[in-house]
Amino acid sequence: MADPSSYRPKPGQIPDSPGVYKFRDEHRRVIYVGKAKSLRQRLANYFQDLSGLHPRTRTMVTTAASVEWTVVSTEVEALQLEYSWIKEFDPRFNVKYRDDKSYPYLAVTLNEEFPRVQVMRGAKKKGVRYFGPYGHAWAIRETVDLMLRVFPVRTCSAGVFKNAARTGRPCLLGYIGKCSAPCVGRVTPEEHRELADDFCDFMAGRTGTYIRRLEKDMMAAAEEMEYERAARLRDDVEALKRAMEKSAVVLADATDADLIAVAEDELEAAVQIFHVRGGRVRGQRGWVTDKVENVDTSGLVEHALQQLYGEESGDAVPKEVLVPALPEDPEAVSQWLADRRGSQVSLRIPQRGDKKDLMVTVQRNAQQALGLHKTKRASDLTTRSRALEEVAEALGLDTAPLRIECFDISHLQGEDVVASMVVFEDGLARKGEYRRFQIKSFEGQDDVRSMHEVISRRFRRYLHEKERTGEWEESPAPTGPVPAGPVPAAPDAADPAATAESREDDGRPKRFAYPPQLLVVDGGQPQVAAAKRALDELGIDDIAVCGLAKRLEEVWLPDDDDPVVLPRSSEGLYLLQRIRDEAHRFAITYQRAKRAKRIRSSPLDSVAGLGDTRKQALIKHFGSVKKLRQATIEEICEVPGIGRRTAESVAVALAAAAPAAPAVNTATGEIMEEDDGGSTT
Asked: Which of 100, 283, 388, 397 is positioned for an S-S bond with 133, CB 3.0–4.6 A?
């Protein structure tokens, strides 16, 4: 546990200006990001007597090893920079909202020549117009089905669209009038885009104008005695009204607003958002978070606004944002929202009337969401905690291993040897820190030597980063952002196989700098001994090592003749199995990709009439191109589907591809070797 006074900046070093600050731990990992109107006043609060700090703040400052800051011109810039750094560094002591479900959106792909209406989930894409989120995908499909009568926009996939264009026949929706069939040229791209724009306008809440226009056209058609057209327009109006009825009117003045409510306790908080457009609830979503920092309702609201609008712009930011408590600096937040919208945004607490009543409903939803989340998570947290405790007890560890790294070796008969490193933190996969390695091939299938090599390479990088961290700690505490500049090469810098360099351009350490509490290898006693030997050679003695053998699911420890046998129902064994299986999956995926790439660029590509299936059959039969090159024509003919003529072509192609390839006697099928004088025998 660090003493905050050891890295406290000297008096007068901290400027009395707006800015954003970062606390880093001993491994240079950013653990907290904050902003302040006055950096001097805010940072001074962290370096008071520890007994006067909130428990969460005390934990953060004793975990940190340094603090640095960046001065900005205005509080709005500080808000923007804080959001960017939280997204970039993912600090462990900052509030991080997690969606409690994956919400579907109604999306219109305006970035395509013929825009498509569809249901979308996940990250938003540029050039796509989104509406929602909705509670259920079926609700979107019901709405779209009603509106396609009036706005016959394309809804088919790219494959269906291309097939219809190729055959000249539209799909069923084109025949029944629910698609304008741009695939066969019934409408021009301009006309179809106009339909898509009208669809978006209607979904955005501009419904009254469009319905009045349709009713006017209906009356005009009736006066001109075009009764069929008038009836069709009448049905269109009814369809749009039914679509509007699916979202009840909650605000009579056709307001565009987002309502945010927060329910919290000492440990967690839940946020609920209602999206109201045109006076109707168009979407709802919710987040939950651990209160890992000392934050009140105002702070939770500010973080929610950053999460909600940080990557949005334009119509995604409404005219009004109603909240239960104003952020610490409401003027700066309002200006930030206005900049993103392009016009003024009202950020306020509703005091009376329909908006106050609707806020009560949103608050009730937040409280229910928090209760449901706590019920679900209690079981999940209990299981993970029990698993980590069982692992610690079985392996004789002093504390539960919060960070576990697992290594696996994968190859095909000694060729394309690769290794994987997967990381689990708090019993959950940390996929952003997975790593892959290429391993040099040894004579035979030597998994033990491969394991020794990859463990050595991984922890040489760790020692280098630890040494670099020591250099940072010996220097005075920085008073600004970490300076960019060239980074000296690591002792293992010649290693071409790791997928990441040791440092970013700004000097920040990458994931190899963080040591695990437990190292797991896929294998038995030999692999465990190799991993332990690699750590001993590097002088590392504070990392526990174990192996999980597939055959009997036994846990092996270094220098133990007998394995540790965990009960089959053990949560600890199940956790180790999940980690081992994930490492195996990650390794074999990489190995297969390398093998496929090698086959695609093999000398066999030049053999006429030899397709991928027979190429793979040859490689699988002989194990490698090298062994295939050494085979006789008769041996090649033994592969199913390979005739003598094809075998001769394969032998000639392999001989031509090798720099010193042996000659092939096509008459006898013998491979002739070359002597020192260059003649063949």
From this structure: 283
Whether 192 and 182 have beta carbons less than 8 Å apart is answered as: yes
Band (pLDDT 50/70/90 cuts) for residue 504 is very low
Q: What is the three-class DSSP state of 300?
A: helix
Burial (0-12, 13-18, 19+ Cβ within 10 Å), 418: buried
| Structural contact between residues 677 and 666, judged by C-beta atoms closer than 8 angstroms | no
Q: How confident is the model at residue 679 (pLDDT cuts 50, 70, 90)?
A: very low
DSSP β-ladder status, 544-549 and 554-556: antiparallel
Phi-psi region of 569 (alpha: psi -120 to 50; beta: other; left: phi over 0): alpha
Nearest to 593 by CA among 377, 356, 418, 470: 418
Sorted by sequence, the CB contacts under 8 Å of residue 113 that are 6+ apart come out as 189
Q: Three-class SS of residue 288? A: strand
- Amino acid present at 530: A
Q: How far is it, in rounded angstroms, from Cα 449 to Cα 527?
A: 8
Instruction: Name the H helices within 601-638.
Output: 612-622, 625-629, 633-637
Q: Are 136 and 147 a contacting pair, CB within 8 Å?
A: no
Higher pLDDT, 66 or 251: 66
- Would you call 103 helix, strand, or coil by DSSP? coil
Give per-residue burial for 170-191: e unless 16+ CB within 10 Å, then b: bbebbeeebbbbbbeeebeeee
3-state secondary structure of 520: strand
